[in-house]
Write a structure and sequence with these properties.
Elements lengths: L11 E6 L3 E7 L5 E8 L7 H19 L8 E5 L2 E3 L4 E4 L6 E3 L1 H9 L3 E5 H12 L8 E6 L3 E7 L2 E3 L34 H4 L1 H12 L5 H10 L3 H25 L3 E5 L7 H14 L7 E4 L6 H13 L1
Parallel strand pairs: 1-4, 4-8, 9-12, 12-13
Antiparallel strand pairs: 1-2, 2-3, 5-6, 6-7, 9-10, 10-11
Helix pairs in contact: 1-2, 3-9, 5-6, 5-7, 6-7, 7-8
The protein binds zinc ion.
The site of zinc ion (ZN) has 5 residues, from loops.
Length: 314
């Protein structure tokens, strides 16, 4: 865990629920994560919300038995998909199966604690704002570029959620569908979404499709591009172009002070950040050029955000 403390306050328990596993920890009065663990997400079956809440209750009992001196006063948990945090509802999550599930009320009743619910990436962006790469700024866009591209927006220092529908930068169109263009169909069903070209997953997939090779992720495609492989160079160039187009749109519309980039692709380092800065600047005129900065909290940002939200209740 890159950053293990959320600062002093009441003890809380936090969960970051993903399709593969559930990350959980207690946070003590110093704000230090205690008992941090990953538990495989159980098959959620016909009652996905109820089954998930039972899993959270089991993990809570386990953590409390191991650390009886820490008595959480509230719980925070974050889930993927469309989340109406204000209403406490999991609206939709393709990989977890619920629709309009009252997750916050169910968890609060089962855990006998006040509960905060949020979207995983909005929660991560909140943690980056409070503790990490976006600390100096109130108007921020956060992008997590991995298998797909997830995003979150902070306006005036507060998450902008729009009922859970805001921030889907990965599913903003950057190319024209056939017959007018050659955009491919996204897993979401639309054509030409940013993540079909610029996600780490898409970079590796496109290279594999064109060459028949199986690259070790986007990282290897980027290395091949640097070594003079023409196909890799074109795919990486198209990814950077699509990304800078999307960031130029965001800059013109939202005027963020900073754009924070995390996720697997951000580990490419300067070869990504320098290129994005140059290409974005090339597309702008009077606009305020945002700082393009790496996320600082790594994979635990969502969990830290969940803990921060729980603290707000206690
Ligand atoms: Zn899409």
């Amino acid at each position: 865990m890159a950053q293990q403390t959320i600062g002093p306050g009441t003890p809380v328990i936090a969960f970051d629920v993903g399709g593969t596993d559930i990350k959980a920890a207690l946070f003590d009065a110093d704000g230090t994560a205690i008992g941090l663990r990953r538990t495989p997400t159980p098959p959620l079956g016909a009652d996905p919300a109820g089954t998930l809440i039972e899993a959270l209750a089991r993990i809570t009992a386990e953590l409390r038995a191991e650390h009886p001196h820490i008595e959480p006063q509230a719980a925070g948990f974050v889930v993927p998909g469309i989340v109406d945090a204000a209403a406490g509802i999991g609206v939709f999550a393709s990989n977890l199966g619920w629709r309009d599930a009252p997750l916050r009320a169910l968890a609060s009743e089962r855990l006998s604690l006040p509960v905060a619910l949020d979207h995983d990436v909005r929660s991560a962006s909140w943690a980056e704002h409070e503790l990490g790469g976006a600390r100096e700024h109130d108007d921020v866009v956060v992008l997590i570029i991995g298998t797909g591209i997830a995003g979150a927006i902070l306006v005036g220092g507060r998450p902008y959620a729009a009922g859970g529908y805001a921030g889907e930068i990965g599913h903003a169109p950057i190319a024209e569908a056939p017959p007018r263009g050659d955009a491919v169909r996204c897993a979401c069903g639309a054509y030409g979404c940013l993540e079909t070209v610029a996600s780490a997953g898409a970079i590796a997939r496109r290279y594999a499709a064109e060459t028949g090779a199986t690259p070790d992720g986007a990282r290897e495609v980027i290395a091949l591009a640097g070594a003079g492989d023409a196909v890799a160079a074109r795919i990486w160039d198209e990814a950077l172009d699509a990304l800078s187009l999307a960031l130029a749109q965001l800059t013109a519309v939202l005027g963020p002070q900073a754009i924070v980039i995390g996720g697997g692709l951000s580990r490419a380092g300067d070869v990504l950040f320098d290129e994005v800065r140059t290409r974005l600047a090339g597309r702008l005129s009077f606009h305020r050029m945002p700082q393009i900065v790496p996320a600082q909290l790594g994979d635990d940002a969502g969990l830290l955000g969940a803990a921060l939200h729980a603290r707000e209740l206690s």
